[in-house]
Amino acid sequence: MPAQPRSVPETFAFACGDCGHGWEATFQVMFFTDPLDPAGLTTQEYVDEAGRAVRSPLAEAVCPKCGGRKVRVLEAGLAERARKAEHERGEHPPHHRHRPHLPHRAPERPD
């Protein structure tokens, strides 16, 4: 009879490089050891919050808002702290105003 797999909850924070959306998700990381493997190697599987087995969220994350694949994995809690900081200071700091940057003209030389 195979041994029951060990399970460890792990929370990851994500940020989408396409749309800027941030979110967190908790996965159950299941560790399996093959009793017939003489080396005793352990494999792991991720199970999402809905109970579905998924590939590693560290390698295959997709933004739930825009479907983008430019997703970075952050320290858990970091996405929420960044969202809160943006909300507290507003979209742009009050001292910052956007102004057009025009190229400088070279002074004309007299002949």
From TrEMBL:
Q: Which domain of life is it from?
A: Bacteria
- Annotated region described as Disordered, given as residue ranges: 80-111
Q: Enumerate composition-biased segments (Basic residues).
A: 94-104
Where composition is biased (Basic and acidic residues), the residues are 80-93
This protein's name = 4Fe-4S Wbl-type domain-containing protein
Species annotation: Streptomyces justiciae
